[in-house]
Amino acid sequence: MEFILEPWPWYVAGPLIALVMFLLIFMGKKFGMSSNLETLCTVCGAGKRSDYFNVDWKASRWNLIVILGAAIGGFFAAHLLSTDTSVEISAETVSNLEGLGFFSAGEAYLPERLFSMEAFTDIGSLAILLIGGLLIGFGARYAAGCTSGHAISGLSNLQLPSLIAVIGFFIGGLVMVHLLFPIIF
Amino acid sequence: MKRTAGYLLIGIFFGIVMFKSEAASWFRIYEMFRFEAFHMYGIIGSALIIGIIGVQIIKRKHLKSFFGEPIKIASKERGFKKYFFGGIIFGLGWALAGACPGPIYTLIGAGYISVVVVLIGALGGAFLYGLLRKHLPH
Fold this sequence. Notes:
The complex is a heterodimer. Chain A is mostly helical.
C-alpha cells in the first residue's frame, strides 16, 4: 500500500483520468469541468445581467456534485493519502524557478510565493491569482471547454475544434511562461 | 439518489487522481510549458490513447449507459476563432495560476485557501464572458 502514499506516476494517473471520463459517459454525462463556472454564475443570479446565464441550472446540478467530490478528494489525497506532498520537478526547472525568485520549488506542492498565507496578504500575489483566475474563466468559456472538455474528452472523440483549442492552450501557456514570466516575476 | 452518490464518488476519485498525480501542482504546469519533464505529457497522452480507443468502442458497439440509455457523445460545434482565441486566453491563465478548472476545487479541498482567489477570478471571468460574448468573434 506504500505506493498509494507516494506521488502517482503518469502511467497510473493517465489511465485513471480516462476511467473518470468513461464513468461519466456511462452515467450518461460528459467529462468537462469548466461549464461549472457558468453554472455557478447562474446559481448566483447572473441571468439577470445576461441571457447567456438564463438557463435551468438544475440540469447541470450533477456536475456541481462532481466538483464537490473533487474538493473532498483533494482533502483525502492531501491529508490521508500523502506522507510528503512536495513535488519533485526536474533539477533544471528548480534552478530556473530560483532565478525567478521561487525558492520553494521542489519542496512544496504549490509555490509559497503565490499560495502561502503570507502571500495571501500581499497585493501583488493576490493580483496574480485573481488575474490568472479571470483568464482561466474567460478563456475556458470563450473556448467552450478546458483541459478536461477539450484536451481529454474532445480529443478522445477526435474533434478538430478541440485540437484548435488545445493548440491555443499551448500558445497561451508558452507565451506566459517564456515571455511574460520574466516580466511579471 | 443513487445517481447523486455516483457523481460524488466519481468526483472524489477524480480529485484524488488530480492531487496524487501532481497535475494540480503549479510546479508541474510550469515544468510542462518548459518541456523539462515528460510527466504531464505522459498523463495527458496516456489518458488520450485510452480515451480514443474507448470512445471508438462505445460508438461502434452502440454501448448503453449504466441505466440502459443509449450513449450520445456530442460533436463540438464547428468554428475556429472561439476555440483559438479562447484557448490562448485560457492557456495564459492556466500557466499563470497553475490550475485548470477541475484542480481548483481539489486544491481548495486540500486546504490551499488562496486558491479561492483563483476561483473568484475564474467565476468573474466566466461572468465577463457572458456579458461580452455578443461583441467577441466566434
